[in-house]
Specification:
Two copies of one chain form a homodimer.
Chain A lengths: L6 H15 L11 H8 L3 H13 L3 E4 L3 E4 L6 E3 L6 H7 L3 H8 L4 E11 L3 H7 L7 E10 L2 E11 H4 L3 H4 L8 H7 L6 E9 L3 H6 L8 E9 L5 E10 L3 E8 L3
Parallel strand pairs in A: 3-10
Antiparallel strand pairs in A: 1-2, 4-5, 5-6, 6-9, 7-8, 8-9
Helix pairs in contact in A: 1-3, 2-3
Chain A binds a DNA duplex through helix 3.
Chain lengths: 254, 254
DNA sequence: CAGTGGTCTAGACCACTCA
DNA sequence: GAGTGGTCTAGACCACTGT
């Protein structure tokens, strides 16, 4: 028997059709596993497998004790490098994340949950061109929209830059944001590199960002450079791919 | 019983530990489902569920008839906007994708599998600012490294730009690449916008790119602009996230 | 051919949600 | 408490890989 003719695959395909043709609307509940099994003369586990296939593709989402629902089209935040713009920062008085979420008509919140002095992980030491034993300040941040966790960011900066300033000591950065404080310390961000990848969330991310089955994360390793093109800061962002995306506009070099 | 104490979760966690500590090396085969079940006094299906959890996270990959293997750290291509650079194009004589794959010591191949005149999808009409009934040329491309499919791209351009040229008629674009031919037609790419998102692959992509469970795709909607900042081309790239990533460097606007 | 993962069954009990 | 999805069992057969 070919794989496409298997009962679980046939049921999955039938449900997939119902979703793509709109017979099953976004947000609508699917028949229960027991109903599907009875209707197709199969064991409940077989119907269950079909549903799992759809969930792994991000088409449906099962909710324990409630039912299985067609996933609604996500409202995606598009974060771009303009989030570092000084003009934006000064005109709105908002941090760039807040500005972006507000644009979408949602309520942004963010919190810095820890500040520590640490030996940096390899990817950070490499990008900051640090000596083997040089230490860094590590700031961990969580970002929400309408109370839902959307994004996680961990920033590393050399102790030599942050020591004694709000960068090393305060979870509340006051007017503007992180990049305003870097500018105060003599490091105006003028150039940035962003390395983008996607993967499935690990255990911690699945819990911390409450990510359902079938939703990947986008990871951005961001490096900030000063006007002399020296790196002074590395941030690793992880964001739910069903809630956030990226937007880059730039001139093409000759 | 808490979810973390369930037999399948416990086994999954134990295997996860073995992988992260290196007890199970990348590429190494896990014990068979039957062995795991016997060793832990559980039904084979329970061991199977544990393995599926790991596969969904991209940690292991099952191969029918062979076994389950720890996934090897991917060799990621980093595609950046320098792929549109005229200098690179002229110096190497290679298309930008080829140049990038060669850099990684792999053998690139690419093929244009279809050229058609079509009514464009909404996302294209919008970005090219087309009239409702204006038609476009659609070019479909597949990209490989060492014979493995890595990336898929579909380019749309207004018929008015491509008509009569290689852009509309030839799957072999000769010296340089697509952007060399656009330049010939009077549209030198000088500015680009790239909208990046990630998601799980759909049916076609899973088959076409041979994507295993637990691997998402990166999607880039790329818009090319001429020196007068008029859009002349939209390409939608879909790439395996375990094989390709993106790399953007840019100045920060004031 | 033996051994692997892939699918399916028919039943049981548990955990969660909601009226 | 009724109804949902989540987990587990013990068994069977199929499809694929390698020797």
């Amino acid at each position: 028997m070919k794989s496409a003719e298997l009962p679980s695959r046939l049921l999955a395909e039938q449900l997939r059709q119902a979703i793509s043709t709109g017979t099953l609307q976004p947000g609508q509940q699917l028949p229960t596993e027991r109903e599907l099994a009875a209707a197709h003369g199969m064991a409940r586990n077989t119907a269950r497998v079909a549903i799992r296939l759809l969930a792994e593709q991000g088409l449906v989402q099962a909710e324990h004790g409630r039912g299985v629902f067609v996933r609604t089209a996500p409202r995606v935040l598009r974060l771009g490098p303009y989030r570092y713009s000084r003009t934006l920062r000064e005109q709105t008085g908002l941090s760039p994340y807040h500005a972006e979420v507000r644009k979408q008509g949602r309520i942004p919140t963010a919190a810095c949950t820890s500040i520590e002095e640490v030996t940096p992980p390899g990817y950070v030491a490499e990008r900051l061109a640090l000596d083997a034993r040089e230490r860094t300040i590590r700031r961990e941040n969580w970002y929400y929209a309408d109370g839902e966790p959307i994004q996680h960011g961990v920033t590393f900066l050399p102790v030599s830059i942050g020591a004694g300033s709000a960068l090393a000591e305060s979870t509340d950065l006051g007017e503007g944001d992180l990049y305003a404080r870097f500018a105060d310390a003599g490091y105006a961000i003028s150039f940035t590199r962003e390395e983008v990848s996607a993967r499935m969330p690990d255990q911690l991310e699945t819990e911390g960002l409450a990510i359902p089955l079938g939703v990947p994360v986008l990871q951005v390793i961001h490096t900030g450079f000063d006007p002399d093109h020296r790196p002074f800061e590395v941030t690793r962002f992880v964001m739910r791919a069903d809630s956030a995306g990226l937007d880059y506009s730039m001139a093409v070099d000759d």
